[in-house]
Fold this protein.
Amino acid sequence: MNGYVATRGLVLIELGVSLRREASKTLWLLGLGPEYDWFFLRGAGMFKRAMSWKQCALVGGAAWVGFSGLGATSAQAAEQITDYGVLEEESDLFASFRTASRWSGTQGSPRALKWSIVPDGTTLPSSWNESSDDSSLIGWLDTIHNTSGGSDLTQRSWFSMFEDSYNRWDELSGLQISYRPADDGASMPYNNGQAGVRGDMRVGGHRIDGVNGIVANNYYPSRGDMIIDTADTFYTGNAIRERHFRNVLMHEVGHGIGLRHVRSDDFGQLMGTGSFHVFKGPQFDELLGVQRHYGDRFEENGGNDTAATATSAGVFASNGTWSIGTDATNTSLIALSDIDFVSIDDDSDTDMFAFTLTQDGVIDALLTPYGPTYNEGREGGALSPLVTSALSDLTLELVNSIGVSLVTSNASAAGFAESFSGFAVAAGDYFLRVTGEANNIQVYGLDLVVAVPEPGTLLVLMGGGVLVGMRRRRA
């Protein structure tokens, strides 16, 4: 989105050439309805109405979209439109695992967010033939679940479905999402989150289009608000439909944290538009997207990028093993109980793991990149294979307590393991350091084995270990 101009009662938003077709499908998410027209720049400050984005393409240059239903023509109104982040740069539209804009912060950094449920009677946006009714979500859910209560929504039997849906994204990433009980009922989606007043990501509901069709919609950051179709029967009934509802909630939260729709013909994804009862919650494609945006769960509370903040791998007084990233070994289906996933989110990310030997020992370490290969593409676009085990070439290092690298293993290409074995060390504090070469995410697993040899054999092992380490170094 390159700029805006207010003219003749319209707010015109400039779109790059590559965004026209995408914009025509996603503008309804802005909550502005279908009342928009295409324009192209005829001359200096002069705009001409076009029949469609195709006429803009024939003229060349950028297209402009005019909104006539805003009730405002000021720069402030235009800023409200651009704030939603629904129209992204071309690089995002064609990115793997379909990330849109994220909540404020640098790529890969953790982020704390609050969510809330708006009280019934809250004004909701009307878009894409959607009703102009106020929110009736709480009463609708109470009727379905045959429950009632006061303002403490946590006591409702249906509350856990919402809480679990937001918490699931928290478990899988550097997001710290928690419920904010307060919501003042300010209209959606123009009011930002405020401590003690309302959440950053808010949930309401009214009639959208009835049975089938759109079951819910959600704004991208920095709004994140969700609207559920309370006139749809998609949610009510048996256990399969409850799974549908939970997956719909998690799908919509996915949009709210910055993930787009994705399509595949050979792999299940929560952010797809197909069946919602085959699996539960985010799958591997969504794991990549959310950890690319916010890092893995070890990025919270200062991260583990340095020796001072390293994740503990334990204290070894005798033979022992330690592993992390174990749930990534099965990438065909991620269960709701799976939380052990780690990744390098770009070429500036570092993961440090600290361990201590109370006596001399021998170390083996194995770094394995994980991920399935599947056909993937943006909604409505072409599919191509995505090899998620080879998105970035990883490096493994053994570092001592003063920061000296003792062993470096980076001889293998992307998609293949790095390791060293039989490396003898004296008692003390050590670190395993993992980095990646590409500006991309790579999910991995890390295994450490510590052995305490018999007295008298350590010197020989130390010599062999040094040679092993040297042979593993890349030329």
